[in-house]
Structure formats: C-alpha cells, structure tokens
Specification:
It is a single chain. The termini are far apart. This protein has helices at residues 34-38, 58-65, and strands at 13-16, 20-24, 73-77, 90-93, 99-108, 114-122. The strands form 2 sheets. It has a 3-stranded antiparallel beta sheet, with helices on one face. A 3-stranded antiparallel beta sheet has the order 4-5-6, with no helix packed on it. The chain has 2 helices and 6 strands, in the order E-E-H-H-E-E-E-E. The protein has 151 residues and is mainly beta. A hairpin with a 5-residue loop joins strand 5 and strand 6 (114-122). 9% of the residues lie in helices and 25% in strands.
Length: 151
C-alpha cells in the first residue's frame, strides 16, 4: 500500500474541548448547515476558530455532529467510545444522483488503502475532484441541499 501524497491526504482540523474533540475535513463539507442550526454555541461562522467544542455538553455536540450528512465533522468523546456507524447501513440516492450513506463503512483512499467512515455523501456524477466523496463540482452543484434523515 502506498501512502497518499500531500495533495491526496485529507486535511483534517482538530478542535479540543474539555469533554469532546471535534474534527473537521473542509474538502468534504457540503454546507448542509446541520451544525450551525443544531448547536450555534459550538459552530459559529462569525468567530475564528469557528468550532468551540466547550459551547455545549459533549453529548449534545456528538448528537449534532451525527446530523452532518457528509461526515466532514466527526467527534471523539473524552474517555468514551468512538463514533460508531448506524446499524443497519443505509444508502439513499438523492434526486441529483448523490448517494447518502450511513453505517460502518470502509472506503478506498487515494493511493490505495481504505478509510473507516460512519457518514458520507458519495459522488454520483463522476465530476468530483475528491472521489469518492461529492464536492458539489458536478451537476448537483445547481440543486439545493437535501438534508439527511437522522435516526
């Protein structure tokens, strides 16, 4: 297995709080805004940094992050279990062709290997530069975001 190059490797930002760590991968964000609507004290686009994990209880932060359909946001509760995928795994095709997938997932990485995921929006048109993830660069860019169904 070859390691991804610097251009291929995901750029993940980490925000530590007293009870939870939030990670954010900008290339995967599709701006569904589930985070800012769900916990404005944690996710505030008018501040820098925009993520403040201590703005709510760790359980609330985790609950809001699980609403992020793209998986751009993830969390680790201090001393608690890692985020787990939905059971059973679900796949939903959105009207524009994207695939909304939730579960215990293993996706290929650029350069080989695989990556564990719990929530993803997969490219359905082939235009994404961030394969296999949707980056809104293809035909789906013209349509509105359709929010994820949450469990």
């Amino acid at each position: 297995m070859t390691e991804p190059t610097a251009e291929e490797a995901p750029r993940i930002k980490e925000y530590d709080g007293a009870g939870v760590t939030v990670t954010y991968e900008p290339r995967r964000c599709l701006h569904a805004a589930e985070c800012v609507k769900g916990a404005p004290g944690v996710f505030d686009l008018s501040r820098r940094p925009w993520i403040h994990p201590d703005g709510a209880a760790p359980e609330e932060v985790a609950d809001v992050i699980r609403r992020c359909p793209s998986g751009a946001l993830q969390y680790r509760v201090t001393g608690g279990p890692a985020e787990t995928g939905d059971v059973p795994t679900t796949v939903r095709r959105l009207p524009d062709g994207r695939l909304l997938v939730r579960g215990d997932l293993l996706l290929p990485e650029a350069g080989g290997g695989a990556r564990s995921e719990t929530r993803v929006v997969l490219c359905g048109c082939g235009a994404s530069a961030n394969q296999p993830y949707c980056d809104h660069s293809g035909p789906c860019a013209d349509g509105p975001w359709e929010p994820a169904e949450t469990a």
